[in-house]
Amino acid sequence: MPKIEIYSSSFCPYCVRAKALFKKKELAFVEYNIQAEPERREEMLERSQGARTVPQIFINDRHVGGCDELYALERRKELDSWLSAAANTSVLS
């Protein structure tokens, strides 16, 4: 199972949309709300190389980007290969 992490904030429509795609695909994810846990903001900035907007999404520590990038991967039929590669990597580890 791939490790999916989403940095989000309350009432963010893009965060809701990104999480909805993972739920539709029946994939579990870990959510870090940077409003509820402000210390996570610095972590998000470091991991995303300075990206300040939410959501910031990671699949097995590989930075996807935000909601638009996530849906672009899905439209290009590349998201499933990212998820498969992540799942295969975690099985091999």
Structural notes for this entry:
The protein is an alpha+beta fold. The protein has a single domain, classed as Glutaredoxin (3-Layer(aba) Sandwich), CATH 3.40.30. It contains 4 helices and 4 strands; from the N terminus they run βαβαββαα. The two termini are 12 Å apart.
Provide a compact summary of the structure.
The protein is 47% helix and 18% strand.
| Bulk shape | globular
Order of helices and strands: EHEHEEHH
CATH topology: Glutaredoxin
| Count of discrete structural domains | 1
User: Major beta sheet, specifics?
Assistant: 4 strands, mixed
The share of residues in extended strands comes to 15-25%
Major beta sheet, strand line-up = 2-1-3-4
Question: Low-confidence segments, ≥5 residues, pLDDT <50?
Answer: none
Whole-number mean pLDDT: 93
The CATH superfamily turns out to be Glutaredoxin
Mind sketching the topology for me?
Layout: E1 4-8, H1 13-24, E2 30-33, H2 39-47, E3 56-59, E4 62-65, H3 67-75, H4 79-92
Parallel strand pairs: 1-2
Antiparallel strand pairs: 1-3, 3-4
Keywords:
single chain, about 90 residues, alpha+beta, Glutaredoxin
